[in-house]
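From: lab user (bench 3)
To: helpdesk
Subject: output format question, protein + pyridoxal-5'-phosphate

Hello, I'm new to running complex predictions and I'm not sure whether the block I got back is the full result or only part of it. Here's what I submitted:
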Amino acid sequence: MSIFEQMESNVQCYANSFPVTFNRAKGSYLYDDEGNAYLDFLSGAGSLNYGHNPEEIKQALVDYIMADGVAHGLDMHTTAKADFMQTLQDVILQPRGLDYKIQFTGPTGANAVEAAMKLARKITGRTNIISFTNGFHGVTLGAVSATGNQHHRGGAGVPLSGTSRMPYCGYYGYNADTLKMIDKQLSDPSSGIDAPAAFIVETVQGEGGLNVATPEWLLGLQSLAQKHGAKLIVDDIQAGCGRTGRFFSFEEAGLKPDIVTLSKSISGFGLPLAVVLLKPELDEWAPGEHNGTFRGNNHAFITATKALKTFWADENFEKEVVEKAQLVTSYFQAVVDDLGVTHARLKGRGLMQGIEFRNGEIADRITSRCFDKNLIVETAGNHSQVVKCFCPLTIDKADLEKGLQIMVDAIAAEFKTDLKVAV
Ligand SMILES: *Cc1c(COP(=O)(O)O)cnc(C)c1O
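Helpdesk reply: Thanks, we reran it on our side. This is the complete output you should expect:
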């Protein structure tokens, strides 16, 4: 019996899909303890947008550690933190015309979501937070109350409260205007929906099945929030940091959210780091009112700063992501066209695309077949029916095509057909 079987809690889950022991990782590849290479189309669920151990970033961290740079400093001022904030300001916020203050929360995405929800409630004096069908925001009590997934909600052990669920863009088909429904409910004093402190939304639902909100819907939601005195929180923990092609997933829509949560790939190296961006006028926090021992991880500041300078100071990076996304679309569109809409549908945008199948069993057999061919790829969606391509943004074209071809072959084997993918 392995040490994992002996000791590790049943709560562990990813290793069930990928039952090997990894010990090394570089770029787009993970290596197991027998030296086998696996192409990584999971990327730490979007925490490794720049791949494993990116050389420049690793070197910056090694240099900092060797110079005895501060590793832990509570939330005290450090040069590492100053450099990170200045770089975020100069490389990301200022060129995009965004004006935000930054709150360092505990290091997980859920920590950032908790802080964002708490702040919106404090500012507005209201309790209710509206989240959306199939949304995922983490599993601590506040965050899981905004999460749709029954499996995660069921683990809470107490009644989940303080949130209302509303239909996401396209939930009833893209012809049904869910914003109109929400507006009606919020305008009716007897609808039973309390005035919201905030809306919390993902522009592309990462765990929920790569459901995409249209730019019009997102802008409409922003207006609706204003109309009803609520704050707009964009949870960009998964879709942000370039996953959809731009740094923030809401840039195409031209949104100016009141509050933004970032985590997963913000450290650029897979280190734990989470932040909340808030419009300056919303900064009603009192010192220490929301605290935590690990707010601001100085090693992650070093890697985050280097990632922003390496990838985001150069606008070619965004162009390359868009080109790779087009390649993914062309492969998946060909598959979907071949299989027909009753069997497969294209989901997502940017480098968070996937194919939706009729049920989770089909998707599961496809990802298992991919793993047999040394490709790590996961499912998402309310029935785990979406096979989700989450390659590093930095993947080279040859590896991307190699992985996509493994996916196409696995799908062809599942449907016992030849798929004509000519790109
Ligand atoms: C992963 C994720 C979270 C939660 O982050 P954790 O680090 O797992 O707590 C919240 N929101 C979104 C959109 C996520 O993808």
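A quick orientation on your result: The pocket of pyridoxal-5'-phosphate is lined by residues 108-110, 113, 136-138, 202, 206-207, 235, 237-238, 263-264 (CB under 6 Å). Let us know if anything else is unclear.
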